[in-house]
Amino acid sequence: MTFSLLGRCERTGRFGIVSTSSSPAVPARCSYVAADVGVATTQNVTDPRLGPALLDRLREGMDAAAAIEFVAAAAPHVEYRQLAVVDAAGRAAAYSGSESLGINGDRLGAGCVAAGNLLASAAVLEAAVASFEGGDPEVELEERLLLGLEAGMEVGGEAGPVHSAGLLASGVGEVTWPITNLRVDFDPDGAPAAELRRLWSIWGPQRDDYVTRALEPAGAPAYGVPGDPGDAER
Fold it and tell me: Which of 93, 158, 212, 229 has the smallest count of CB within 10 Å of its CB?
């Protein structure tokens, strides 16, 4: 029901996750990120408590593998869960329970991990990881994640129709909030990844302006709304 790619940008230290699913509003339940800490997903038959639990274990000093082991050992009905996490050092770990649906599994990469269930084939995971690992480190994290998602979709993606997708990425340092949080909660045409790509094309060029507006509003770019005094006067 869900296919995700989690990654850390070695250049910036930022974390992000891109996901798509046949279920509605997948990122609302599955995607979790914390600046300078890590990124996590809880999916398949989802327990939304487990993503925050993974990040809490990282905050306590566990690495990715230890966090997965600890949370999986304590979670009820863990055989139905898929978990994945990337920590602050770029180490990745994952768990796919025995009751994960259809063709399922996870693949670890350098600074990334892919996990999915009800997949067309295991090649989906391999393609996503290969795309992220082989991507230009100068390219924005969100773009690399989208390219990984698209690589997985090109080799089959999920076995059935998909309806939702999301892209979540952290800030870094004093920017403690997610600076990208894009969602397609339900696309009746079954092309949420294409709509997510369109949203990123709008948000990406403006993303850093909104960070500036939070930190230094007097020096921020123009807002582009009626009554805005414009760049020349800001």
Answer: 229
Q: What are the DSSP calls for 33-100, one per residue?
A: EETTTEEEEEEES--TTHHHHHHHHHHTT--HHHHHHHHHHH-TTGGGEEEEEEETTS-EEEEE-TT-
User: So what's the pLDDT on residue 67?
Assistant: 98
Distance in angstroms (rounded) separating the CA atoms of residues 213 and 135:
30
pLDDT tens digits along 66-94: 999 999 999 999 999 999 999 999 999 99
Q: Are the C-beta atoms of 142 and 197 separated by less than 8 Å?
A: no
Output the pLDDT for position 226.
Answer: 73
Burial of 185 (0-12, 13-18, 19+ CB in 10 A): middle
Half-sphere exposure (Cβ direction) of 174: Cα atoms closer than 13 Å: 5
Q: Which two tokens stand for residue 170?
A: 């952290």
Q: How far is it, in rounded angstroms, from Cα 153 to Cα 136?
A: 20
Give the separation between CA 225 and CA 161, rounded to whole angstroms. Answer: 38
Yes or no: say if 113 and 140 are a contact pair by the CB < 8 Å rule. Answer: no
**How far apart are alpha carbons 226 and 48 in whole angstroms?**
41
Q: Please name which of 52, 39, 41 lies closest in space to residue 4, comparing C-alpha atoms.
A: 41
